[in-house]
Amino acid sequence: MTYQSFDDAAQQGHHATRLADLRNRMRQEGLDAFIIPRADAHQGEYVAEADARLAWLTGFTGSAGFAIVTQRQAGVFIDGRYRVQVKDQVDLAHFTPVPWPETRPSHWLREALPAGGRIGFDPWLHSRKEIEAMDSGLEGSGLGLIATEENLVDAIWPDRPAPPVGRARAHDIELAGETSADKRARLAAELKRDGHAAAFLSLPDSISWLLNIRGSDLPKNPVVQGFAVLADDGHVTLFSDPAKFDDDLRRFLGNDVSILHPEGLTPALLDLPGPVRIDPATAPEAAFRLLEQASTHIAPAPDPAILPKSRKNSAELRGMREAHLADGVAMVRLLSWLDQQPAGSLTEIDVVRKLEAFRSEAGIYDISFDTICGAGPNGAIVHYRVTQATNRRIGDGEMLLIDSGGQYPNGTTDITRSLPMGAPPPEAVAPYTAVLRGMISLSRARFPVGVSGGHLDALARQYLWHHGQDYDHGTGHGVGAALCVHEGPIRISRTSDLPLQTGMILSNEPGYYREGSFGIRIENLVVVTEVEAEAGRRMLGFETLTLCPIDTRCVDLSAMARDEIDWLNGYHQRVREALTPHLDDSTCDWLDQATRPLGI
Ligand code: GLY
Ligand code: MN
Ligand code: MN
């Protein structure tokens, strides 16, 4: 079983014709521009082939971005991660990469179109918040946003794949820890309290959590694609292809969950009694318009499942701990194997394949995202994904960064380790030590209730800052329990002001990237727990879930404080004790070496 493809995704040849077809269609519809987002109606990280409109039209396959097509221009808006990739993938004779968010789409449109210009968009593919932002950016320009009845790309896509009909399955109570009926009653009570008749849900992971189901519509994210309406009596109407649900699953869901084909969503929204709670940040503009068309009272508020889903209960935590034990075994087998390979004998793809094989034996049914395996300069590309074209032979004395994770039936993992192949490169030692100290500082943090990820972010960066260094990504993201590896709403980053609460699982992943040379990232998952405090106070801290040695060959012990070394030794002792019973003798020997106490 292989999970990751190493194809060079660029698909040449047809994009000029498709662009011409789209422009014809725009003329027929009286539109001067049309917006093609990467997102689908559920705003997730992965889209089904049927929703890969941006890639089909332009050739660009990144996980974020959008195109705006006019009769004369076709701008492909991409963020900093994709500046290089976009140039390799799109035909530059027809498409123009546009740096985003530096260039605002409304500004670009003002330059591109004459006053009175009509800008078409598919209201299912944009959140209300996004459309409001675009609208305010266009204020006073004389340009108008026009919601189209039909997606213009779909109209010119003759062999567009059908939407996915992946089999759905029950997520058993031993793993979920709370019945769907109890979750629905809990959320329905909140609706009643606020005087809302129903809530509209459009995030597949929220719906999958609420109904205790998992799906196979998308790679890497084990969600059931669909929309749902939760009524204030706890009844859920799920709009998802009924073919995904067999009789056993229907029995599991019970009479208080009705399954309707997605075609039933529009009439249902037109007929829904209000007030309806709906999330402007995530729900499609089209859903708002349907409710407005029916003069239904709208109550804008966050998706009611988002926060409860982020606080894992004891059964979910048990599953996550078990998944991390299995994942630790796979990782240690890989790291031990890596140490036995002659210098210069491996490529990045060899490592990804071997890791997949070990994880497969550990029980995954999918990887949780495409493995980032970057040697030398490739390690400095934060979102690097190896392809046949970029595959690098890992040279003696090069740093190797491996960021990967698995989807196990009981949990989701995400781990990064960075290590030298052969002798440690001297220039990596100081930054490696600074990254490790920041990662330890966050792992050991103690903080009062009310503190947010924004307050803690600097703990992980402080030693890099001291040396005039930093990293251009967040320190941590929420992680789902047997769900999406990137889960909202909680984060550890400067802009996150949501207080951390017990049971939340986050990544702790500081890094350092020297362009053209090497990259370092060390990532563990942690769970927020209550810790001891003096009477009258409540304090929180983190327990580390990830079980895998942290490479010590690039550590400068003289730069580390005694209590940091003690933390590392204590962590390694825990890893050794947990994994040893599950390893063969030679891997145990390797683990003993890798976790031997330092500085004593
Ligand atoms: N690159 C996936 C992650 O660590 O979040
Ligand atoms: Mn990761
Ligand atoms: Mn991560």
Automatic annotation (TrEMBL):
SUPFAM superfamilies, per database record: Creatinase/aminopeptidase, Creatinase/prolidase N-terminal domain
Keyword Ligase part of the UniProt annotation: no
CDD domains: APP (cd01085)
Domain named Peptidase M24 C-terminal: residues: 539-598
InterPro entries (alphabetical): Creatin/AminoP/Spt16_N, Creatinase/aminopeptidase-like, Creatinase_N, Pept_M24, Pept_M24B, Peptidase_M24_C, X-Pro_aminopeptidase_P
GO terms, molecular function: metal ion binding; metalloaminopeptidase activity
Keywords (A to Z) from UniProt: Aminopeptidase, Hydrolase, Metal-binding, Protease
Gene Ontology cellular-component annotations: cytoplasm
Limits of the Peptidase M24 domain: 319-530
Domain Creatinase N-terminal: 18-141
Stretches assigned to coiled coil: none
Presence of the UniProt keyword Cytoplasm in the record: no
Record family assignment: Belongs to the peptidase M24B family.
Protein name listed in UniProt: Xaa-Pro aminopeptidase
Organism: Paracoccus seriniphilus
Lineage: Bacteria, Pseudomonadati, Pseudomonadota, Alphaproteobacteria, Rhodobacterales
